[in-house]
Amino acid sequence: MDILTVLATTPWLYITAAVLLGLCVGSFLNVVIHRMPKIMETRWRAECAELNNEEPPKTERYNLVVPRSRCPACGHKIGALENVPILSYVALGGKCAACGARISIRYPIIEALTGAMSGYIAWHFGFTLAAGAALVFTWMMIALAFIDLDTFYLPDDLTLPLLWIGLLFSLWGGFTDLPSAVIGAVAGYVSLWLVFWAFKFATGKEGMGYGDFKLLAAIGGWLGWKMLPLVILLSSFVGAIVGILLIVLARRGRNVPIPFGPYLAVAGLIALFHGEALNRQYLDLF
Predict the structure, then answer these.
(1) Bond preceding residue 67 cis, omega within 30 of 0
(2) Can you tell me the distance from the alpha carbon of 102 to that of 99, in angstroms, rounded to the nearest whole number?
(3) What residues contact 7, with CB distance under 8 A and at least 6 apart?
(4) Bridge partners of 95?
(5) CA-to-CA distance for 137 and 158, rounded, in angstroms?
(6) Which of 180, 195, 207, 284 has the fewest Cβ atoms surrounding its Cβ within 10 A?
(7) Residue 210 neighbours by CB under 8 Å, 6+ apart
(8) DSSP 175-224
(9) Mean pLDDT, all residues of the chain
(10) What local confidence, expressed as pLDDT, does residue 133 receive?
(11) CA distances in angstroms from 149 to 33, 105, 117, 242, 257, listed in the order given
(12) CA-CA distances (angstroms) from residue 229 to 7, 83, 264?
C-alpha cells in the first residue's frame, strides 16, 4: 500500500500530515514575507540606475534561498535545529542562540496559522485535488497579507502567478468554471480600478494601490465572478471594523493609511470555504 493510499484512507493521518506540511511551509513563508520586499527594492534600484545610465549598485546574491537566514542583530547563521517550526522558538525562549536578541513572536504565529489553515483545508476538502489547490491559494494569501501589512505593497511576483494558477485550475473544473473565472478576473480588477479613480476624482487622493486590483482579480480568477460581491462586502466590513478599533483603541489618526490587501485576503479565504453558503443566505433575504 503506497503512501497516497494510506493518506486517502486514513483521515486523521492525512490531516496531521497537512498540519506538518503547513508548519514547514509557514517557516518558508516567513522568509518570503521578509525577503520579497527587499528583493523588490534591489530590483527597483537596479532599474533606476539603468534608466539613468548608471552602474547598478553591487550587492551580494540575495533571493529566497541565498543567503542562509541569520540573526539581524549579530549575524549568526540559523542552523537546522534552530529553524524547526514553533518548537525551536519555544526551546530558545524566543531569543537568538548566539546573542540573546529577541526573536519576533510573529514568526511562530505565521507558522502556527499556516499549519492550522492547512489542517482545516484537509478536513474541509478531504483527499482531493481541490484540497491541494486550496492549500496553494491559502499559502499565497497569507504571504500577500503580511507583506502588505509590512510594506503596503502586493508584489506582482505573487499576485500574477496566483491569478494564472487560478485560471488554469478552472480549466479542470476547479472552484468555478473557466468562463466564470475569466469574468471574475476581469471584473475583480475593473471594479477596484473604478473605485480607485472615483475616489481620486472626488478627493484628489489615491485610496488604494494597483496591487489590490490584481489581488481581487486573482480571487475572481479562483472563485468566479459570483463571489466578488461577497468578497468586496466582507473585506470592506472587516476593514471598517479594524479601522474603527485602531482609531478608538490605538488612537491612530484617521489620515494614517491602512493596507487593504489583508482584508481582501481574509475575505477571499472566507469565500473559499463558505462562499456558496453565505451567498445562498444573502439571496434568501430577498
Answers:
(1) yes
(2) 9
(3) 13, 14, 17, 127
(4) 102
(5) 11
(6) 284
(7) 196
(8) SS-HHHHHHHHHHHHHHHHHHHHHHHHHHSS--S-HHHHHHHHHHHHHH-
(9) 89
(10) 96
(11) 10, 16, 19, 13, 11
(12) 37, 41, 12
| Section 203-228 average pLDDT | 91
pLDDT tens sequence across 92-126: 999 988 888 898 999 999 999 999 999 999 999 99
CA distance 78 to 71: 7
Alpha carbons 264 and 269: distance in angstroms, whole number: 9
CA distance 122 to 134: 9
Q: What pLDDT is recorded for position 146?
A: 96
First to last CA, the chain: 52
What average pLDDT score do residues 127-137 get? 95
Half-sphere exposure (CA, 13 Å, Cβ side) for 163? 24
- Those residues with Cβ within 8 angstroms of residue 217's Cβ, 6 or more apart along the chain or in another chain: 159, 163, 184, 185, 186, 188, 189
C-alpha cell at 51: 534608466
